[in-house]
Amino acid sequence: MELAARQGQPILILQGGRDYQVTVDDDLARWKSGLANRPELTIRVLPADNHFFFPRQRLVKPGRERATAAHGPRW
């Protein structure tokens, strides 16, 4: 976060809303707080996406995540 705070470029943070590895409540909150002085910070939470930006109907528990080509990232 210290390195990101020192950068002179705009910052984009993408967060999966159903990510249990990097969470909205804990991890993203720390990033928001740590970079609060950066006016060129953009944060987008993709509510249905997991850690890999795969859309999920529900939060999948650790060890149960499967990445498949048919359900890959949306980009």
Break the fold down into its secondary structure elements and pairings:
Elements: H1 2-6, E1 11-16, H2 24-34, E2 41-46
Parallel strand pairs: 1-2
Q: Describe it for me?
A:
This protein is an alpha+beta fold. The protein has one domain (2-59). The protein contains 2 helices and 2 strands. It has helices at 2-6, 24-34; strands at 11-16, 41-46. α2 (24-34) links the parallel β1 (11-16) and β2 (41-46). The two termini are 26 Å apart. The mean pLDDT is 84.
Characteristics:
2 helices, alpha+beta, two-stranded parallel ribbon, 75 residues, elongated
Specify the oligomeric state: single chain
The largest sheet, given as strand count, sense and whether it forms a barrel, is: 2 strands, parallel
What's the overall average pLDDT, rounded? 84
Count structural domains.
1
Give the helix proportion (percent range).
10-25%
**Secondary-structure element sequence?**
HEHE
**Tally of helical runs:** 2
Strand order of the largest sheet: 1-2
Structural class, by secondary structure, is alpha+beta
Shape: elongated
Task: Count every beta strand, where a strand is a DSSP E run of 2 or more residues.
Answer: 2
